[in-house]
Amino acid sequence: MQRQYTRRFGAVLIGAWTALLLGSLTGPAVVVAGAPLMVIAVVGLLWPRDNGGTVTYTLADKPICFEGDELGLELDITPYRRLRYRVVLRDRGLLVGSFAVTAATSTISFALAHFGSVDLSGSSLIREGPFGLFEDTMPLRLDDAVKVFPPIEEVAPIMRMVSAPYAVGRHRSTVKSHAGLEFVDVRQAGPGDPLTDVNWKATARTGAIWLNERSSELPLDLVIFLDTFPSADLAQRTKLASNLARAHLRNFDRVGLVVFGGTIGWLPPATGHFQERLIGERLLLVRPYESAADKRIDLIPKTALPRSATVMVVSGLDDPRIVQAIRDLKFAGHPVIVVRPTASAVQPSLNQVTRLGLLIRRQLLADIANLDITVIDQDTWRERTDVDVF
Amino acid sequence: MSMSSSHTQASRVLGTLLLATGAVLGVIAPSHTSLLSEGLAGVGIISCVLASLLRTRATTLLASVSTVCDLATVAASPPVHAAALIVMVPLGLSITLGLLFITSQHSPVASLRPFEWMIVLGSGVFAALVVIVALITPLTALPRQLLAGMGTIVVLGALSRLAIRARSPGSPATKNQTTPRAS
Hints:
The complex is a heterodimer of chains A (390) and B (183).
Chain A: E1 2-5, H1 7-26, H2 28-46, E2 54-59, E3 65-66, E4 70-78, E5 84-91, E6 94-101, E7 105-111, E8 116-118, E9 124-128, E10 134-139, E11 146-149, H3 156-160, E12 179-188, H4 200-206, E13 210-216, E14 221-227, H5 234-249, E15 254-260, E16 264-270, H6 273-284, E17 310-314, H7 320-331, E18 336-340, H8 352-370, E19 374-377, H9 378-386
Parallel strand pairs in A: 3-11, 14-15, 14-17, 17-18, 18-19
Antiparallel strand pairs in A: 1-10, 2-4, 4-7, 5-6, 5-9, 8-11, 9-10, 12-13, 15-16
Chain B: H1 3-28, H2 35-53, H3 56-76, H4 88-102, H5 114-136, H6 142-167
C-alpha cells in the first residue's frame, strides 16, 4: 500500500510544531495546550505501514452492458481493520465514483453513465488512517475493459422524415441495379429507360409506354458514415449511428460503418447479429481526436464503401472536412442522406453571433440539399417554427 | 442540500465553535491579558468562521491559521500562576477537536471512531501530566529543556529519514549498484 498524508495531517503538524516552538520560547502553557495535537501527530507518524493484507475482488460480468446498467464489484478484505475503507473507480483518470466499504466482504453497485470501452484499471482501494491523517492506497487491477453499449432507442421518427426518392430497409427501393422480380407498380417510361419490361396492358389502354416497377430482392448496402470530428454532440451522434445500424441490420440490410474524423476506420457492409456486434464494439472506441490533417474519402477502401451503397452520413456538419466528404460521396455516385442529430435546445433569445451561425448553417444545408442530398436536421426545422432569425 | 453536505456543515459549525472556544479560553486563562493576545484571539475567531464558510482546501488552511492564532494567544500572555495551567488542558482539547471537526467530511458523530476518541482523551491525560511535570519542575528551566528536546527530535527524525531513503530500492544511494552477472 502506498501512503499519502492528507492536508488534515499538515494542519495537525503545523499546530504541533507551533506548540513546541512557542512552548520552548515562552513556557509550558503552550505545550500543554498543544499536547493533544502533538499526540495525534505522533500517532499519524508512527502508525505502522503494512501491505494492506489480502484483497480479492471480482467484477460481476454481464454478457452485454448498456449505458446506465448497474455493475457489481465484490470485495473481500483480509484482515479488515476498524478503519474507513473506500473504493475509488476511475476510467482513464476520470472519476467514475467513490464508494464506502463498510464490511470485510461487500459488494459495490455502480452504474456506468456513459457508453464506451471503460478502462477501470486505474481504480484503487483506499484505507483512511486514524483521524484521516493519511490514506493508504492499494491499486485494484481491473484490467479487462468493460464494454458499455449505448442504449437501444427507436429511430423510426428519423426514418419517417426521409423524403428521398429512394428508401432504405424493407421499404421500397428503386435502385435500378438491384431490380428484382416482385411487381410493385407501373410508371411511365422516360428518356433512357430500357424497354425490357413494358407493361403492355397499361400501354395499350393509355397509348403511352408504361414500364413495370419491381422491387429489389437484394439487401440494400448501407454505409453509416459517422463524423467523429471533435464536437459537443459526438456522443449523441455515436448513439444515433449505433441505433441506425441496429435498425437496418434487423431489417436484413447489409450495413457497414465508416468512422471519419481525426482517425479513419471502417467495417465493410455485412449482415447479421455478428455485424451488429462488430459495429457496436467499433463505436465504443470512438474518441474525439484532434487532427488538422486533410481527410478525404479516397482513404477509405472500396470494400468498405461499395459503389452502389447508400451512405447515411451522421454528422453535426461542424467541420468543413465532413462537408467536403459529403460532396465527394455524392460526386462518386452514392445516394447520400445526411442525418443531423438533435442538438441542445434552442435558446429563446438569440444573440447576433448565434443568429449568424444559424444563417451560415442554413446556407450550408441549402447547399447540400441543392446537390440532391436529403438532409434530416431536426434543429433547423424546429428553429424555423419557433424562432425568427431576423 | 444533500445529506452528506448537511453533515459536513454540522461538523464545520461544531469545529468553528470549538476553535472559537479555544480562542476565548486563551484570552481569559491568564489574569492579565495584552492587546496582542486579544488581537490574535480575534484573528483566530475570524479565521475559524471563514474556514467554516469556504471550500475544503481553504478550510484546512484557515483552520491551521486559527489553531496557530489560538496557541499564539496563549503564548502572548501565558498564565502567571502555575495552577492556571490546568485551564490549558480543555483549551488544547477544544482546539484539537475543533481542528478535527472543521476539516471533517462526515457528521459530528461519525467524524471520530471510538479508538480515536480514546486517543484524544488520552492526549488530554498526557496534557494533564505535562501540567503536573510543570508544577513540580522550575518553570524557568522548562523552555530550555523543551528546546533541547525539540532539537533532539528534529535530528533523530532527519537521521531516520536518511536511513529509510538509503534502504529503499529506488533511492539514489542504491540505484547505481549493479547486480552481479554470471560469467
